[in-house]
Specification:
Blueprint (H helix, E strand, L loop, with lengths): L24 H6 L1 H15 L18
């Protein structure tokens, strides 16, 4: 988690929420099938990711 960005007004840092399950994140990410299903579900709700990649990361298609 980023510590250099403050949460929006009315929110606490993520590690202060008891249901964030931060310790289970690595286990979740190791199950690629589950991660991809979750990604597809989010895509259904909010659409495809658009915009330039984050600085320092070349993205999925670095040659484009």
């Amino acid at each position: 988690m980023r510590t250099d960005v403050q949460p929006h007004e009315g929110y606490r840092p993520i590690w202060e929420y008891h249901n964030a399950h931060l310790d289970g994140f690595e286990t979740f990410m190791a199950n690629r099938g589950l991660v991809e299903r979750f990604r597809q579900q989010l895509t259904l709700y909010v659409g495809e990711v658009t915009g330039a990649p984050s600085p320092g990361w070349l993205g999925l298609h670095p040659g484009r």
